[in-house]
Amino acid sequence: MVAELVNLLPADYAAGHFIGRAQSPEGPRIIALREGRIFDLTQLVATSSGAVARKVFSGGEDIGAVEDSLPAGWSLLSPIDLQCIKAAGVTFALSAIERVIEERARGDAAKAAAIRQALEDKVGGIRDVVPGSAEAAQLKALLIEEGMWSQYLEVAIGPDAEIFSKSPVLSSVGAGATIGVRSDSSWNNPEPEVVLVCDAHGEVVGATLGNDVNLRDFEGRSALLLSKAKDNTASCAIGPLIRLFDDGFTMDDVRKANVDLTIDGPEGYRLEGTNDMGQISRDPADLVSQCLSEHHYPDGFVLFCGTLFAPTQDRDEPGAGFTHKVGDVVTIASQRIGTLSNTVSTSRDAPPWTVGIGEFVRNLAQRGLIDRI
């Protein structure tokens, strides 16, 4: 059962400003939340990317109080549409160590525990190193000398961040939707992250939450399998809404955010963890700058900032670590941003993705909204 809208929002939602998307019987709509009310912005701007580009966050038709939820027949969608979906990897020291473990275990979860202990003893000092600094270069030289260097450590402490394309335009799913892992994956996990929302010029206008669903066995076999590990049907969840930056919510709130994760399994299993943004190795603003680089994003982009959380708690067999089961309920929450909850299926069995750019544009044209993109 999908939670009521008010239960997905932060406690101070009435003092904040939010935009998002909802599916109505006619098609997707752009909604805004302010002062505890829901407004339909669709007649002003028909896309989330357009709202961000033109800063169309006010006005619209008042359609009710947040406590009364969305109109009957409406449901939340991912709050983005035409924006490119980008992600930064290995932005925390712990995630760097876990990626090296995947690489050395060649995707075999059973080998991970022993490798983890050996690596912690060797590269624990990575936690205190500023990426791209002279100290980072010295650590790199030492680790190369000891035969411990890895491509993952390169992006963890080197000058260049790992930035990759997570998922195609319009493919992300929203709060309450099914998320998918490949049916042939035996070692996988959620990645609870803050997602920054940017316009075409790299200005960050707000933040939301994301689940960068990851296949550890695929990426562990080879980093060249990153796209198979990351980009699968329903493998990218974003939501519930975009909280816009204002006097009461800024990038500093992102920098100190805790992103809590809970997994409730169908067999009664429960796992809890936290992604503490205060421990990120690269500042979020630097990640945005590296993502923008010399690229062009005419419809804007969103950027997953990476995660500290890498589940190592055994689920079934000692030493086998964690992996998803069909029916897992994954809940990601942050005090100032909201709650994103999804249920796990396989990508093969998840609802198929059918509304691509062509179908999306056709729907807007049929509704007379094509000039409001």
Features:
single chain, 373 residues, alpha+beta, Fumarylacetoacetate hydrolase, domain 2, 3 domains, eleven-stranded mixed beta sheet, five-stranded mixed beta sheet, 11 helices, 18 strands, 24% helix, globular, hydrolase activity, FAH, hydrolase, metal ion binding, metal-binding
Describe the structure.
It comes from Alteraurantiacibacter aquimixticola. Residues 199-344 form the Fumarylacetoacetase-like C-terminal domain. Keywords: Hydrolase, Metal-binding. It is a single chain. This protein is an alpha+beta fold. It is globular. Helices cover 24% and strands 28% of the residues. A hairpin with a 2-residue loop joins strand 2 and strand 3 (37-40). It has three domains: 5-80 and 359-372, no CATH class; 84-90 and 164-352, Fumarylacetoacetase-like, C-terminal domain (Fumarylacetoacetate hydrolase, domain 2); 94-157, no CATH class. The strands form three sheets. Strands 1, 2, 3, 4, 5, 6, 7, 10, 11, 13 and 16 form an eleven-stranded mixed beta sheet that branches. Strands 8-18-17-14-15 form a five-stranded mixed beta sheet, with no helix packed on it. A two-stranded antiparallel sheet has the order 9-12. The chain has helices spanning 5-8, 48-54, 93-105, 112-123, 134-145, 151-157, 216-221, 226-230, 251-255, 284-292, 357-366, and strands at residues 17-24, 27-34, 37-40, 61-65, 75-77, 84-89, 162-167, 178-181, 188-189, 192-198, 204-212, 214-215, 236-244, 258-264, 270-276, 301-304, 329-334, 338-346. The chain is built from eleven helices and 18 strands.
